[in-house]
Amino acid sequence: MVTEHGVYFDYFRHQVTNNLAGFYTTNIWSHLVGGECLQEDCIQHSVLAIGALMRSMSEGLPSSGEEDHNTVSQMLAFGKVAEQHHRAALRHYGKALNLLRQRIQCMVRSTPGAAVTTTLLLVVFELLQGRPDTAHSLVSLAIPLLEGRSPLFQSKHAPPAKSDPDPAFRDMEWVLPTISNMHRLSHSLRFPHETINFCTTETNFDFPDPGCDSMSKLFTCWGRFFTLSIIFFRQSIWYELEHMSADVPPSIALQQEMLLSHLQRWKHILADCAKRLQVEAAGKSALRIVQVHWLLLEIMISCCLDRAQLMFDRFEEEFSRLIALCVDLIQDPSCCRRPTSVLLGEGLILPLSITIRFCRNHNIRMRAIEAMNLIPGSIVAWDLRDMLDGLLGAVLLEELGRLSNGFVPPESRWVWLEGGQSKGGDQFVKVYQRLMPKEKGEIVFKELRVDTDLLPEICAVAGCTGDHSRAEV
């Protein structure tokens, strides 16, 4: 490597990798800096792009140590040195992207590892820049490469996928689907048919032995299980929204039972791991995130086949505990360092958005909104305000339908689907679907134009006098 390359690689190895290891993808980043992957030009340029980008951000930080800066452009305003590193980052990014396209065009079907690894790195690069739409376009480009090679993503009508013989690829094949599904589940319940046909939860699970296996293996096994579980949740919720008059197929109920059984096994595994005395700081931090996601899955999988979503009402205590765990992580400075935040932000927004979506207890919902407002702007890669506006529209509709005894009946429960143009095409609106159809089975949709903070109106309808705006997004 030339001198410049060595500087950026060292920065990736010493600054970036250690922070990214704080999430439960630690073994992936350590594998990258081990040197084997760097034999691939596309991976090498991706690593250098991230190293240069993070170097530009560090040079661009104001001397006061403030961290409330979302975009690279804000960082670059603080000096020409930062601009120089940023130009290098874009140069390496462009080379990596061109090499990735070439590799995809002449893909040898049995060796997708380099292309998927490169995509993952470029996704991290785009998230660091605050460009989630571009990041998820890259994910959409790479996920089809997994078809037929990974049990995680395959067509329902295709023969069973054969696992890639490369253990390193198996260790990281779940990360892109995890990022994609966490983002989509937080932001939109729309599930394109071509995507749902790729997803499967019919696969064998690996379980680590806490007494023998490394923390890296634990995080890899958990990551695969978590990915398949949130895919199953999205499939189930979307199936119920599309097939309101149909019973849930027995095969889906069997998968739910299997996942709940595995979840209990994971409960004991995580308890044993938490007792370990010799766990590095990054491992302890990652384990805390796993514990948050375990509790989230307990709620999601237990309730996902209840079409009326009344089951969620039984989990108010769990929702409350989930918020407390998220707040602890948000307020822990060691957990919110860039670029860990790229994955941590996704990992914390998901449980909080699920709470706002599915917990009908007004006070708990408001606590989740407060917690989301506490998330530092520096660890969010998109417009969090826009997402909250969409969620709050459904909350308002449900408050308007809440009975005098505090219960929100099924016919007054709504789901935020997405944002888009109104039927007339003259304004941007949020689209909502009522859980219960009309008497003849007709699905009920509603459009709301959300251009102001709905919290005061929500609390006025609920008769709530609490202050839920103590923090800014």
UniProtKB/TrEMBL annotation:
What is this protein's record name?
Answer: Transcription factor domain-containing protein
Q: Which InterPro entries match?
A: Fun_TF (IPR021858), Transcr_Regulatory_Proteins (IPR052360)
The record's GO molecular-function terms, alphabetically, read: DNA binding; metal ion binding
Does the keyword Transcription regulation belong to this entry? yes
- Answer whether the UniProt record assigns the keyword Coiled coil to this protein: no
**Pfam families the record matches:** Fungal_trans_2 (PF11951)
Q: Which domain of life is it from?
A: Eukaryota
Listed A to Z, the keywords are:
DNA-binding, Metal-binding, Nucleus, Transcription, Transcription regulation, Zinc
